[in-house]
Amino acid sequence: MDDTPRSNAALAARDLRHVWHPCTQMHDHERVPLVPIVRGEGAWLVDADGRRYLDGISSWWTNLFGHANPRIAAALAEQARTLEHVIFAGFTHEPAIRLAEELVRVAPPGLARVFFADNGSAAVEVALKMSFHCWLNRGHGEKTRFVALTGSYHGETLGALSVSDVALYRRTYAPLLLTPILAPSPDAYEGAPGETPAQVAARRLGELRALLERHAHEVCAVIVEPLVQCAGGMRMHHPDYLAGLRRLCDEFGVHFIADEIAVGFGRTGTLFACEQAGVSPDFLCLSKGLTGGTLPLSAVLTTEPVYQAFYAEYSAGKAFLHSHSYTGNPLACRAALETLAIFRDEPVLERNRGLAAHLARRLEPLRAHPHVADVRQTGMIAAVELVADKAARRPFPAAERRGLRVYLHGLAHGALLRPLGDVIYFMPPYVVDEGELDHLVDTAVAGIARAVAG
Ligand SMILES: *Cc1c(COP(=O)(O)O)cnc(C)c1O
């Protein structure tokens, strides 16, 4: 090796000379350390100074089976020596064919067609365009709008951001965006005192019905994050909402787009969140965990009737038009196939049930904490809502950045916790054990004590 210094400090200094990071006010790095990671093993990340961090957020919700997973790495190495990439128009390859077959096999019934893209936002763009274009091909060009839920997040490209309602990401770019029709989220945390999650869902379905009565003629689709609105603060809702949404979409002639980019692949306790409501959407968007967290890839699954709305003589001009250079990348497809193989070979969901129960037991005492307004959990996603005033559920002023204190405490104590504002959450890779969950919870509890002090 050459003798370039590779300490944390040396790498961070070089990074900050040229690299611009996502979701970051770069000025923060004058006081918040930038952490250079040199390798990963299991749920752990190792920095250039040899310090270890337990990845409590699965590296932005992507990792399922650990970093540098040996099975996925071996499949990738073999694929890299065979076929790294090929144009996906006019040409195809077995990894994409097998992956489409596997996705159709494991997805909710009725989803028979698979369109690949290369990240979550792109999958949302595809679903929005495909829904609009499907209606257009059927002679309903007047349908040009989308219904989204308050507090939703579907990505940050302009189309995906258009149907998102997280102010932090949306506000600045609002002049550039389409205007969605916002339906109130069935978020149980925002329910009235004493209202059960099922009651909130029923009430919100009534409000959605009223919106559709007025707008269905101009609406292509309703897009939702099933069971958990993740980036919006890990807000959770009752599965009844999804069942009712399916019925309303059928009644009013609009599509149901399920964005399972974050919640798919076992996060909520079932392989797909929609299963818990026994429904199939018209479009299912997948990414993040799709490759086990190794490579960018996304897929939009849809139904045979949607596919048939595009299938015609070339001259009819009905073909779907959306293409990315790296569509169906063979390496990414191989990583996804190996990820699905792990689900087949190992009792992943069953093991996760035990881990989720342990996490729930460990978080239970936080309910009594004077600055915790809510502890909620759906499968392998758990969240703790920090507030200034528990009785009134009044948040801390955002400028105080209490959650950032938890992040900094985590870094200093070997845990990657990256709160969403003041929502401290746990979304670990499925390969953690109970001791590692204990480490995450203990670190978070100590971090919370520091965050709420003064
Ligand atoms: C992360 C996310 C996206 C966007 O995916 P990217 O790959 O980051 O573009 C879309 N929808 C949901 C629900 C997400 O959590």
From TrEMBL:
Stated name of the protein: Adenosylmethionine-8-amino-7-oxononanoate aminotransferase
Molecular-function GO term, any one: pyridoxal phosphate binding
Entry EC no(s): 2.6.1.62
Compartments, as annotated in UniProt: Cytoplasm
Binding partners and assembly: Homodimer.
Matching InterPro entries: Aminotrans_3 (IPR005814), Aminotrans_3_PPA_site (IPR049704), BioA (IPR005815), PyrdxlP-dep_Trfase (IPR015424), PyrdxlP-dep_Trfase_major (IPR015421), PyrdxlP-dep_Trfase_small (IPR015422)
Provenance organism: Fulvimonas soli
Gene field: bioA
The entry's keywords: Aminotransferase, Biotin biosynthesis, Cytoplasm, Pyridoxal phosphate, S-adenosyl-L-methionine, Transferase
Family: Belongs to the class-III pyridoxal-phosphate-dependent aminotransferase family. BioA subfamily.
Superkingdom classification of source: Bacteria
